[in-house]
Amino acid sequence: MFAKKETGATRILPTHVAVIMDGNGRWAKKRHLPRTAGHAAGSKNFKDITRYANKIGIKYFTVYAFSTENWKRPAEEVKNIMNILRDYLKDVDNFKDENISMQFIGDLTKLDDDIRELIANAEEKSKNATGMHLNIALNYGGRDEIVHAVKKIAEEKIPIEEIDEQTITDHLYTKGQPDPDFIIRPSGEYRLSNFLIWQSAYAEYWFSDILWPDFKPKHFEKALSSFAGRNRRFGGIK
Ligand code: FPP
Description:
The protein has seven helices and eight strands. By secondary structure, it is of the alpha/beta class. The chain has one domain: Decaprenyl diphosphate synthase-like (Undecaprenyl pyrophosphate synthetase), CATH 3.40.1180.10. It has a six-stranded parallel β-sheet, with helices on both faces. The longest helix has 22 residues. About 2% of the residues have low confidence. Farnesyl diphosphate binds next to helix 1, helix 2 and helix 3.
């Protein structure tokens, strides 16, 4: 995809960027702060980077906020992350001007009722926005998503000979969306951690040692420049 830079120049932008917001805990530890302060800083950065992505013309933006494995964390930390989410969702009217449509992906049935109501409200209020589409992955796991899709396919009794890759794609939480073409993971870890494992088959990756709360628009720009210089062959020859 080509998009206008603020300078007016044209550049190649990924259509769908996905981010693993990792490193909040280490960011806090470095400052002798509780982990909760790291998640608060991570949440603020999430809002800033989301706004920036929308401004420069990214069409789809997916963030990993809470994985199916994150329930293993101390109850206090889980509660804190859920409260950060509550605050964000209560503030959703303030994001109206940004023209971002919002969708939560993951198994939402495990969440508290009030959070589910806030999510439904945020999705409903933002559904007609014409700017960027934001997916927030919550109680999300890539394998869990595929199991969920397979169960739905079985439930719909789709004949075996009709099942192909598109059938799976069409039963994922991200149904109807282009696959992520660029996945960013800051914080010095080099793995996917069960994030969008079906959708990322041909994604490009960008890793860096920067901890998520320190990942600023200038780092995002550096990552985007790297993406723009890559030769994507999708298994063919170009
Ligand atoms: C990973 O860092 C971060 C999380 C598991 C939580 C991410 C949550 C937020 C940024 C806040 C909520 C988001 C929204 C959408 C409002 P880590 O704790 O694993 O860091 P560490 O690896 O340094 O310990």
